Amino acid sequence: MKEEIFINNIIKNTKVEGPGIRHGLWLQGCEKKCKGCFAKHTWDIESGQKFTVKDVVSELSDSEDGITISGGEPFLQAKSVFNILDNLKTKSVILFTGFTMEEILENKNIFILKCINKIDVLITGRYVQENPEKSRPFVGSENQRFWFLTNKYSWDDFKQLKNSIEIRIKNNGNIVINGMENPENIKMFSYSE
Ligand code: SF4
Description:
Largest sheet: 7 strands, mixed
Radius of gyration: 16 Å
Bound molecules: iron/sulfur cluster
Distance between the termini: 47 Å
Structural class: alpha/beta
Oligomer: single chain
Number of domains: 1
Low-confidence stretches: none
Strand content: 15-25%
Order of helices and strands: EEEHEHEHHEEHEEH
C-alpha cells in the first residue's frame, strides 16, 4: 500500500458529519466547479497533502461509529478510496459525491462501482445554488439524494439530526471548522480589520 492519495483534511471524533461519533476524511480535488461551492479550496488536487493509503487507513481505523468521506470529489481518486475502504475495518461508511447515481452507473471507472459496494450511505449530486435545501440536514441543495445501500442506517437516523458546526483550534493556532451551517450564520465568525 505505497499508493498515495491527495487529501484535504482528516478530523477525528466529530459529531457533525453523520450519526454518532465519526472520523471525517476530506479528499482533495474536484473538477465539477459548482457555482457557490463552499469548498473551492479543495478543487486543485495538487494542493492537497499527500498521504499513503496505508497511513490514511491507520488514521481512520479507531473511529467509534464509522467514517464520513467528502471533499472535493472523492471519486476523482476512486482507486485509492477503494483501497482505503477495502483495508479499513469500520462500523459504517458515509460518502458524499458530486456525481448523480445515473453518472455513477454509467461511469467506466470500475473502482467507483467497487467503492459503492463498501458504502452504507451515499449522498449524490452537485450543489445547485439556485435550488437550496430548506429542511433536510447534510445537503446544500434539493437535488441531492440519499441512498441507503445497506441496512446500517435509514432516513430515520438522519432526519432527526440538525446541521451544526464544530470549531477546533489547532496547536499551531489554525482554526478548523467542519460540519454544515447556513452561510448567513457562518458570516458572524468572519474577521475584518
Ligand atoms: S461537487 Fe462539491 S466540491 Fe465539487 S464543486 Fe460541487 S460543491 Fe464543490
